[in-house]
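Hello Y.,

Per our agreement to keep a running log of every chain we model this quarter, I'm adding this entry. I've kept the format consistent with earlier entries: sequence first, then predicted structure.
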Amino acid sequence: MLDEIQNFLSLDYWRSFLKSPTKKKLTENFLSLSLLQGLNYILPLITLPYVVRVLGVEKFGLIAFAQAFLGYFVIVVAYGFNLSATREISINRENKEKVSEIFSSVIFAKIILACLSFLVLLSLLFLVPKFRTFWLLYLLMFEIVIWDIIFPVWFFQGVEKMKFITMIAFLSKLITVVFIFVLIKKPSDYILYPVVDFIGNIIAGAWAIKIILKNFKVKLKVPGLENIKYQFKEGWHIFISNLAISLYTTSNTFILGIFTNNIIVGYYAGAEKILKAALGVFSPLSQAVYPHINKLLSASKEKAIKFIRKLFILMSGGTFVLSLIIFIFSGTIINIILGNNYQNSIGVLRILAFLPFIVGLSNVFGIQTMIPFNFKKAFSRILIFAGLLNVFLLLVLIPFLKEKGVAVSWLATEIFVTTSMFFYLEKKGIKIFSAKINDK
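Predicted structure for the entry above:
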């Protein structure tokens, strides 16, 4: 392993890496995705200090609860297409007719899921008093579900042309930031929060679809039922995995809101937003290499695992440093970004500080290794058990520790996920530390 690290850090390795046409494309996509993630996380962090102060802890907590609630519908509509469709596009990118078929099938599948989700939402708003009180907010927040349909990041990942989506995202986030400062002036303006988000999203989404249809010559047509069924089948295990992941991500804020109040949710959500911005730092690397690993694996398992080992070195080292910085400077970070009214968030952020390191490892073991090597069922099972574990811990810890209980539960669950994936790969003969691959 030491020789592998020394080779990875050598100048000769990086010279040859950057000269390779394939690696050049990978680097370009990584840089584009880095900028995209920066827009997704850094720009909201610019508005976050303003929003939390103008809206106050309670209304900010309400917005966070609404986002968590609608997040379940986003998971349904996203299904497993974020990985399964990316893989399909990546493999068939040279076949324009096949790409059009995949794109059309996925879009129509998402529309079907969105219509069903909207009917469920209306039923809940009518039947459940907690949701009925702020029904208009939840209805407007459905825009994040529409955004998932019209902003097909998975397509641009599959064709490895992320520069387009980066430009579009910049426009969307810039419009949103401007309207937040212009329109949100007092706590009662919380209802405008999803509106300003939707304005930027609908413009950017329309632009993205136009680029796909014009620049990539994709033809959007009504797909056959068999094609839609095939896409649902391909994404099923990933959907179950995403649903399980929601039990220890989206569900944290949602369950906390069910059992406590919007003020406590605000304390937790403030720390969580900062932590998720940190998690997003290495997300571009993950998204850029995923189609590349699938391509390598279709040619050679040995080449794929060798690349995964290099990814492991980079991901583990970078995320550990990031986690250490967050842990040491938790108090300063909270005071600067959220302000003095969020002192309860400091303890939460300190507990969550090492999640970037733990999640970084699980990403390498799970998304980058288990899914490409077709261990999707095992991947789903691990995440289902993790989700159930988290819900159990939440129900036990929230009554005693409130927002800190949620943080402890999330940390413990992510440790379980990472260790389970590591030992599963060891059992299957994929030893990332020794680069040996045995078919079992």
